Amino acid sequence: MQAAVNALRAGGRVVWIDGAAPLVARRLEELLSAPPTDETPSSIPSTAPKLSSAELRNRFHHYKPSTLAHLLALIIHPPSSFPPPDTSLIVIDSLSTLFDNAYPRNADDRSTRNKNDAVRWAAGRKFAVLNDLSSALRKTAALHNNSVLLTCQTITRMRSGARALLLPAMSGGDWDSGISTRLVLFRDWLPVEGPWSAEDDDRMRRARFIGVVKANGVSLAGEGGVGRVIPFTIETAGLHDLNLTTADITPQPQPQTVGTSLAQAVRPPKRAFAEIADSEDEEDGPDSDQLYGWAEDDDVAAEGLLIIEQQPSAPAVPPSHTAQGADAAAGRSEMPAG
Question: Membrane-crossing residues (predicted)?
C-alpha cells in the first residue's frame, strides 16, 4: 500500500486488484491524508503535481475479481480501458490465494495410487496457467511502461533429514525467471535492552524486516536465505526506516545452565580425525565394545531372547576320537568349492 501511495504522489495512476482480503480503505485514506515526511522516497520527483487526497483517490482504481478465471480474463484478454492511461503501478494482492482456490492442495492426492488422469491434468494445468499469466503481465508492463507488484504467501517444505524451509507459495522455472525483484517481509523479536530511549524501545518492539532475495534479476540469497535485510516500522503516516547496527541486535551469550553441563558431560568421547586408524589391523585404542559397553549390554539383552533346546546327552567319547572329529571338520571347511 505504501508503494501505491508513492506512485500516486509521483503523478501516476494505480490499479489495485484484490486476490483475498478486501482492501482496507481506512488505512489507504490515512496514508493519502498524511503530509509528506522527511523520509519521502527519492523516486518521487520534485516536479510532481501537488494533489489533494480526493484527487489522489480518484487516480486509484480498485478491482475485485472473485475467481482466478476473472483475473485471467482481465490480464490476458484486457478490455480497451485496462489499464487506464498514465498507470504507473499494477498491484495484485494475495495472488496465491486465487490459485489455491482454483487448484486446491489435497494431501490425499499426493500418493501415486490416488492420482488419476484428472488430478494429473490439473497439476500440470496449474503451472501452464501460471506461465501464461507471467507472460501476460510482462507484456502489459512493456506495452504500458508500468511496474507490476505481486504479493503471495509462503509455504513450508519438509525434507527428510533436513530442516524445514519457507518458500514462496508460487514458484516454477518460468515464473521465477520472469520475476525481476523478490522481497520477503517478515517479523522478528529483537532484544529490548539497549542504549536507546523509551521511544526507540517502542519502535524496536514494532520492528519489521524486508529481505532482498533478488534484485534486477540477480539472486542475492541461497535456498532458504533472505538476502540483505532492511529494518523498518509501520507508522500512521507510512513506513519509516529503523536505524540498527549489528551490535544492537546481537544477543548476549547466555550463561551455561546445569542441565546443559550435564548433557554435555554424558556424551561419549569421540576420536579425533588424526587418531582414526587407517586399517582394521591397527588396534592401538579401545574398540567400540570397550568404549561404549555395547557387548555387555547385548549379552544382557539377548539372555531373554535365546531359546535353548534340551537334547539328550551323548555318550562320552574318548579324547582321541574328539580330536580326529575336529580335524575332519576343519578339513571340510577349508576345502575349496569344486
Answer: none
